[in-house]
Each structure stands twice: as structure tokens, then as C-alpha cells.
Amino acid sequence: MGQVRIDAVRQYLEQQATHHGYDSRLLPPVSGYRSQEPTQLTASHAAFDLNHHLVFSTCQRKGIFNSEIGEALTEYWLRVATKYNFAIDQVSVVPDHIHLLVRIVPSMSIEECALLLMNNGQHFVGKYYPQFLVEAGIDQLWQASAYAGTCGEYSTGLIQKWLSSPE
Description:
It contains 6 helices and 5 strands; from the N terminus they run ααββαββααβα. The chain is of the alpha+beta class. It has one domain: 2-Layer Sandwich (Alpha-Beta Plaits). The radius of gyration is 17 Å and the shape is globular.
């Protein structure tokens, strides 16, 4: 679980347009998604709440995304998540990077989840929006790295205290 509370991450994602100065534009090149009914994830003999904040930056931080591409990519990623048994709870898209709040099952690593999203995102944009890559002068969508941080309802300290207390 980590030090970061999930509510702070949700609020941070919701404020991306303002944070980057896009909110005052007539047609802001941003999009957002927040699940109204979070997907229930299950695993045999386990209780878990594995929330991660992911950030993917475009290659050379080129401004690729607009609201149309952001919304289409989010819809595609939601199908990928269903197929591979993880959940996307929130997405915030600005022209040169994307923030996601994802939940995974214990058998999936966050690296596997991030690679599924990045590789499928590359495929999707290359297939349906290749002109944006050409116009930006890049042949790959993403930087070769990503940010992944944990977040949750409870801090690590609180969980440790609960685990060490007698029943």
C-alpha cells in the first residue's frame, strides 16, 4: 500500500488539465475517464487492494494526444484490461503524457500491466492514428520507461500496526 492515499491520486488526475494550463482553452486537448462502477477483481484465497498510479510519456514528450485520440485509446485500454483481468479506474490524458489509476490481481506484476498498456497503446495509435506519429516525427509512441507508484486506502504504517497487533 504505500504512503500515498488513493483519494489524493484521484484528485491529482482530475486536476491535470488545470495543472498543465489546458483548462482555459476553447477546445482543451485533454480527456478523462473515471469508472462509475469499479470492476471487481478476485483471486483464490486472497484479499487484496493493489492500486497503482501509472504515468506514460510520449516519445520525446511530443504532443500526440487530443481529446478524440485520448477517449478512443481509453476505450481500447478498457477492453484490454477486461481481457487480461486488471482494472482501469481512472485515466487523464494530456497531449504529451497519460496518467492512469489501475488495479491488478496478485498474480500480475505492475510491470506486466504497464507493458500491456504501452504495447497495446502503440498498436492502437499506429493502426488508427499513424498520421499523428508521422507529424510528430517519431516512430514509437512512448518513452522507454514509465512511472509506477502504489496508492491505497491505508498507509503502510497502518497496515504494519494492524499486522503486529494481537487479535
